[in-house]
Every structure is written in C-alpha cells, then in structure tokens.
Design goal:
The structure holds 2 protein chains of 2 kinds.
Chain A (H helix, E strand, L loop, with lengths): L1 H17 L13 H24 L5 H27 L1 H6 L3
Chain B lengths: L1 H37 L5 H8 L3 H42 L6 H6 L6 H6 L5 H21 L5 H25 L24 H16 L1 H12 L6 H32 L9 H26 L3 H24 L14 H22 L15 H33 L7 H21 L10 H24 L16 H35 L3 H11 L1 H21 L5 E6 L5 E4 L2 E12 L3 E12 L2 E6 L2 E5 L4 E5 L1 E4 L3 E10 L6 E9 L1 H19 L28
Antiparallel strand pairs in B: 1-10, 2-3, 3-4, 4-5, 4-6, 6-7, 8-9, 9-10
Helix pairs in contact in B: 1-3, 1-7, 2-3, 3-6, 3-7, 6-7, 6-8, 7-9, 8-10, 8-12, 9-10, 9-12, 10-11, 10-20, 11-12, 11-14, 12-13, 14-15, 15-17, 16-17, 17-18, 17-19, 18-19, 19-20
Classes of the chains: A mainly alpha, B alpha+beta.
Chain lengths: ~100, ~725
C-alpha cells in the first residue's frame, strides 16, 4: 500500500512537471522605454502628491513653485527620451536599462 | 505512514534540486539567446546558421528549448509544495494517532495532550519546525510560481533563488533533522509530552506567525537578488514585492508581540521582554525589515538608495535565517530555545554561502544600482528616511552585538560574558525616542527640500500640544494614576517616560493633522462631511494613510513601554488570611490548595483582591508539575486594566510550614502594548487594500462653462 502511494505520487509529479502540451507563456521583454514609462508615472505621481500637499496647506507657495518646476523638468527629460526611443526602436532593442 | 512522509520529503528535495538547476540552465540559455538576437548580424554563429538558411530557426529552437526547460523548473517548484504539504500532513496525522514509533512524536507528544497542541507538535521541536519552515517556504514559492505571468523573467529568477533556499531546508529535514526518524528500542506506550512552557494557547499560533514572517522575507530577498542578477531595469520589482513585504512584516510583528505576550503570561517573571537571545533573533529582522519598508519608498519615488535597499533586504533575510538558527540550534542559551543540536554547522555554511553569493553579484552588478538623484537637503522627506534607516540599523547592530557577545567573549577570552537589559536599554531607549521624533517629523516634510516656513506651518501646533501634555503630566497629582505627577528629575527612567509620552502625543497630533488636512481638501471638492472625506482619503491612498495608522499603533505601544518606569513588585509568604498591599491593591489569601489529574499536578492559591476597601476580584495563581515531561511550569494570574496589570505568581511553597510564597507585580500601562499591536495590524491590513481610483469628473452639459472641480489625487 505504502509503495503504491509513493509510486502514484512520483508518477503524478513527473507527469505534471514534464507534460507541456501548450505554448509556454513568456510575456513581453522589458525595454528601456518600458522602464522610462515607469519613471514617468512615478514623476507624475510625485507631481500629484505635491499638488495635493499644496492644496492641503502643507507646502508654502515658494516651495511649491520650485519643487513643481524641478519635477516638471524631470518629466520633460524622461518624455524626451521616450520620444527618441519610440522614433528609433533599434536604439531601445540593444539597451536594457 | 512514516515511509510516506520520508518519501515525500525526498521527492520534494529532488524536485527542488531540479527546479533550481533547470531554472539556472533555462535562464542562462535565454540570456544567451536574447544577447544573440540583439547583436548585429555579423555574429559568427548567427551568420553561419543564416548562411545555411536556418539561422532564425536555430535561435528560435534554442529559445523554445530553454523556455520549456524553464517551464518545467517552475512546475517542479509548484509540485515541491504538494510534496512538503503531504509530509507535514503525515507528521500531524502521526501525532493524532499517537504513533510513538516515530522519535519526534515520542519526544513531543503524549496521549493526553489536547488536539490543538497535537497539531502544534508540527512546530514544537526542531525537526518539525524545520519541516514547517520548508512548508511555509514552499507555500510562498507555490503562490509566487502561480503568479509568474506578472513578469515571467523576473519571477523565473526569483523562483531559482527560492529553490536554492528550499534545497537547504529540505537537505536539513532529509539528512540532519529528519522528523520521520524511527525510535530505537521497544515500542513505547506513552510519549514524553510537550514542553509545558509550550502548552499555552498562544503557542499554537505564535510560532506559525513568527515563521511566516521569517520565511516571508525570503520572497523580497529572492526578487531583489533576481533583479540584481538580471540587472532588472527600473523599480517594478519593488512594486511587485511590496505586498509580500508588508504581509510578511505584519506576520513578523504579530509573531514578535505574541512571543512577548507568551513570555508575559507564561514565564512568570512579570515582564514581556527580557532581551533574551531568541527574542532578539526575532527583533533583528523586524528592525531591518521595517527600515526596508521605509527606504524602499525612496527607491520607488526618487530612484535613490538602491544599493542600500539591496543590502537591507539581504540583511533581513540573513537575520531571519540567523534567527531560525538561534532558536533551533541552542548555540546561545535562552529560555525560548527548545532544542540543542548539531545543525549549527549546516546553518553556518548556508549563511556563509548566501553572503558570498549575494556579495559576488552585488560587486559584479553594482554599477546597475546607481542612484538617480542626490540628497538635495538635510531637511527633506528623503533625509528623514535616511536617518530613520540609520537608527534602525544602529539598533539592529546593537542587538546583534549583544546577542552574540557571550559567544564572541567565549572565543576571545575563554569565558562567556552575557550582557543584560541595561546594555540594550542604553542604546534602544534613545534610538526609539529619536525614531519617534522622525515618525512625527517625517510625514510633514516634503520630498527634496523643506523650508523653515513650511516646518513652522506644519509643526507648530503639534509641538505646542505635546509640550502642554508634558507639563500637564508633571503638575497633576500622583494619585491620578501611574503616569501622573511625573517628576523627570527624580529618575532617568521617569525622564525617558515623560519624553516618550510627549513625543507620542506629537506623533498622534501630526498623524491627526495629516488626516484632517487631507480630509479638508477632499471635503472642499466633494462637499462631503469631514469623516466621510477622511475615509475616502484613506481609501484613495491606503498605503500612506494605513501607514499613518501603523504609526499611531507604534505610539500606543511606546506609551505601554513607557509605563515600565512605574512598575512595582512584592514577594510574600502568605498563610490563610494574610494581607499584601501593592499600589492601590490589597491581596488577602483566602486559601491554598492542590489538585492532581492525569496530565499534571497543581498547587494554587486563592486571593481576594481589594481596591479602595471594596472587593473587586479573586485571583488564582497556579504552579503545575506535568507528569509526562516531569517539568514544572507557573500559571500567573493577571488582572488587566487600561491603567495597570496586577500580576500574581505562585512562586512555590515553604517546605517547613507549607505556606505558599506569592509574588505580586503591578505593571503600568501593559495593556496599551497589546492594543497598539492591534492598531498596527489594522493599519497594515488597510495599507494592503488596493487604492480606490480617483474619481473622473465629466462636466454635465448643463454645467458647461461653469468651473468644474478637478479630481483630487493623494499620494505618498
């Protein structure tokens, strides 16, 4: 009885591991542009946070203006690189990070 | 049955080894193939293949082959869980069937043991707890491998790392600490019984919680190491592991405090934390894990502290393994170490190998972890996180040093020198107070830089509130309760308590102001009431506002800790009718008696408790002697109120006259600790709830031309 249970366990494991009838899911490979889009989203989120904190009265006007402009500059740099990569996909294929 | 369990463990080991090796092979080939695919056409092999007209198909064939090998590796990891689960189930069934032919069951169970403790036998001894470690790791791996479609390549790397750790624990349970080992000699009719200290309801859930925490940190570590090895572009891996890390942290928090509560309720010394090596072992990964939870936000938001975070997540994993090692090896004596064994060498090797592997990949790929921004100002959210991390790491190092000092001193001087609570408190109390300041200040600071005007605007009212409370506590009469009438100049512990309570008020006010300010913005835009706006605010950014609730829970815990400065205790031999007075309480011994049942022999006293001349309770502290294990255990009776705990222990009996010796403790504010932990856990659960989307407002035709309120988003 014990050996039957062990044998069944072994066979079931082998079948599950090695029987692959369909295609294997791989998903898209991450590119530099994909990474930049994530960074862009993070900067947008930072801008939204700053805006909210300003509305909540936590950030004085002068701080708000300077922080907002530096975040906007950062977003602009990222957007420019995304645009460059989208124009020339060959560049992004060779660059992983 | 034992054969099935042993076979399942061997099968699990074989599957893990396959998952590890096949996973590596698949990733190596996939890397080569993707490098080939991205190289110019001039690559020799590709050109040769192309000239034969089958270049693309060869690459495709290699790629498909490695993909399929990778898939089998993933599946092997999935089946590993099933095999370890079967082995664990077999062990539990054997415990319920009182199968004392298995040495582990014989040593940790007996026929009269109640059902929940028989289930808890799985983690009550060394072999079982290592099997339990394997089971939890396999379960985490199972979930991870089923969710691989989120990012198949990153998950494949993480899966290989997990398989590597899994192999170590399966090697242990197969060859060094096999839970299915057969007892030598004739079959025994009765087991030795479970350690009486473990026969307490919380012990049924404390180890699983702690282990879920310990084991869970393997997942963020696996992702971090995977991301480092593959030079993963971006911070997405942090987002993927964020929930894992928070859940794991919550389990570890729960485990650490359940352990403290167990020590308080069972060990009978009147305290909840004694800086015992095993307690410290659970605290260390908690400290680095908490630091990681904070600093990881800097990486997500600003692309900073990448190297630091990598080391923090590694340190957390490493300290969790070290904690398991300390608990299970008995290398350092502790009231919590329930095993003495020779598995220390295995752990030492594993810790060394993980350190070497991690350091190798860190040195190899550290250029990938360059910060994207620099610290712009010392007064900024970034710097508050940085200081927070430095303090957590300093405290962790202190605890690590103190924990290992007996071993280090033995190696250097030849004799063991143990450090006690004063050593730890000298560092822990100031660090905890500084952390409280940062908890108050941090959320009020802006990212990048904060002006003095901004600081004044956000900080003035909470600071005034804290000062008022501190002054109030000093001028009120002592008769109001333990924390009133505080004279900080009388004793350093009173000074620390006053500061801790004042800072707790500061944090509470800053947290409240965050909710109020955010709620006010939402209320202005939506026209809702303040409470509804605050609920909406929390739902729109659960991580941030759940985090604030966790901070509030920490404050409640700290107030509980601050109460320790006012503790009192008294010991007395009491015959019937004798009185003992402690604080506002008078205890009168009504009777003392003894009892015997198949499980244990017990002696206990019955005490009437009076306060203000009125009887308010009857307490029955007890001392038990367990027949099966031939061990003694105290069962303190604790009367808890918000202000203080009356804690009475039956210390023993005077052998000359048979009178019971009783010790009473009056512990201030202890209940606040347990309440604070609940608040922390509620906050963590809230932080795990997905954010509600910001409302999208479409102007109705009738309102065109009018000003339409913009959607309000909230963030960290």
């Amino acid at each position: 009885m014990i050996w039957i249970v062990c044998g069944l366990m072994f066979v079931a494991s082998i079948l599950y591991v090695f029987y692959l009838p369909g295609k294997v899911f791989l998903g898209p490979e991450k590119t530099r542009a994909g990474y930049l889009r994530e960074r862009r989203d993070a900067v947008y989120e930072n801008l939204r946070d700053l805006n909210f904190e300003y509305k909540a009265g936590k950030v004085p006007d002068a701080d708000f203006t300077s922080l907002k402009s530096s975040l906007q500059d950062e977003a602009a740099t990222i957007l420019a690189e995304i645009a460059r990569l989208e124009k020339n996909p060959a560049v992004q294929r060779g660059t992983r990070s | 049955m034992a054969e099935i369990g042993s076979f399942a463990l061997l099968l699990a080991l074989a599957l893990s080894v396959y998952s590890f090796l096949a996973g590596i092979i698949a990733l190596v080939f996939q890397n080569r193939n993707s490098q080939q695919a991205s190289q110019p056409v001039g690559h020799a092999a590709r050109r040769a293949a192309a000239s034969s007209g089958s270049g693309t198909s060869l690459v495709a064939l290699l790629r498909r082959g490695s993909e399929r090998i990778g898939e089998t590796a993933r599946r092997a990891g999935v089946v590993t869980f099933a095999a370890v689960l079967l082995a664990s189930a077999v062990l539990v069934i054997c415990a319920f069937r009182d199968d004392f032919s298995i040495a582990y069951i014989f040593h940790h169970s007996n026929r009269d043991l109640s059902g929940p403790y028989k289930f808890a036998v799985l983690w009550s001894g060394q072999e079982g707890s290592l099997l339990f470690w394997s089971l939890l790791l396999a379960a985490y791996g199972f979930v991870l491998r089923l969710r691989y479609k989120t990012d198949p390549r990153l998950f494949a790397y993480a899966s290989v790392v997990l398989a590597g750790v899994q192999i170590f624990f399966l090697l242990l349970v197969n060859f060094a600490a096999n839970p299915f080992g057969i007892l030598e000699g004739p079959l025994r009719p009765e087991g030795s019984g479970l350690n009486p200290l473990l026969q307490y309801p919380e012990m049924v859930i404390h180890p699983p919680m702690l282990y879920l925490g310990y084991v869970g940190f393997t997942v963020p570590f696996a992702f971090a190491l995977g991301a480092l090895i593959m030079k993963y572009p971006g911070e997405k891996w942090i987002q993927i592991t964020r929930r894992w890390t928070m859940v794991t942290w919550a389990f570890l928090t729960c485990g650490v405090f359940l352990g403290a509560h167990w020590a308080y309720s069972v060990l009978g010394w009147g305290g909840y934390w004694g800086w015992d090596p095993v307690e410290n072992a659970s605290l260390m990964p908690w400290l680095t894990g908490t630091a990681f939870l904070h600093s990881v936000m800097m990486q997500e938001k600003r692309g900073m502290l990448k190297m630091w975070n990598m080391w923090l997540v590694f340190a957390t994993f490493w300290l969790a393994i070290l904690g398991t090692f300390l608990t299970r090896s008995g290398i350092i004596s502790s009231v919590h170490a329930f095993a003495q064994s020779s598995i220390g060498d295995w752990f030492a090797w594993f810790l060394a190998i993980t350190l070497i592997v991690f350091t190798f990949f860190f040195v190899k790929n550290k250029s990938h972890l360059k910060s994207e921004h620099k610290l712009e100002s010392l007064v900024s959210r970034e710097s508050s996180f940085l200081f927070n991390n430095l303090l957590f790491v300093l405290l962790c190092f202190t605890v690590l040093w103190g924990t290992w000092f007996p071993k280090i001193s033995e190696l250097v001087q030849g004799n063991k020198v143990t450090v006690g609570a004063p050593f730890y408190n000298r560092v822990a109390i100031p660090v905890a107070l500084l952390l409280l300041i940062l908890t108050a200040v941090g959320p009020l600071l802006a990212w990048r830089k904060t002006s003095l005007e901004s600081l004044k605007r956000n900080f003035m009212w909470p600071a005034i509130g804290a000062i008022i409370v501190a002054v109030f506590l000093m001028i009120t009469p002592q008769s109001w309760g333990s924390v009133f009438g505080l004279k900080p100049w009388q004793d350093i512990s009173y000074f620390y308590s006053l500061i801790a309570i004042a800072l707790s008020v500061l944090v509470t006010l800053t947290v409240a102001s965050e909710f109020y300010r955010g709620g006010r913005v939402i209320s202005k835009h939506t026209g809702q009431g303040m409470f509804a706006s605050m609920v909406q605010l929390t739902h729109r950014n659960t991580r941030r506002y759940g985090g604030y609730i966790v901070h509030f829970g920490v404050v409640v815990v700290i107030i509980g800790f601050a109460g320790a400065a006012f503790n009192q205790d008294k010991e007395m031999e009491m015959k019937n009718g004798d009185k003992m007075t402690i604080g506002a309480y008078t205890l009168i011994c009504r009777s003392s008696t003894e009892d015997d049942n198949p499980d244990h022999y017990s002696q206990w006293a019955m005490l009437d408790v009076y306060k203000g001349g009125k009887q308010i309770d009857t307490m029955t502290p007890e001392r038990r002697f367990y027949h099966a294990s031939q061990q003694t255990s105290t069962m303190p009776d604790i009367r808890s109120t918000l202000n203080e705990d009356l804690y009475v222990v039956f210390e023993g009996v005077n052998q000359d006259n048979g009178h019971p010796i009783l010790r009473a403790h009056l512990n201030a504010l202890v209940m606040w600790i347990w309440m604070g932990v609940w608040v922390m856990l509620i906050g963590t659960v809230l932080a795990l709830v997905p954010n509600a989307p910001a409302p999208v407002r479409v102007p109705a035709p009738a309102r065109l031309g009018q000003s339409t309120p913009a959607p309000v988003a909230t963030g960290d």
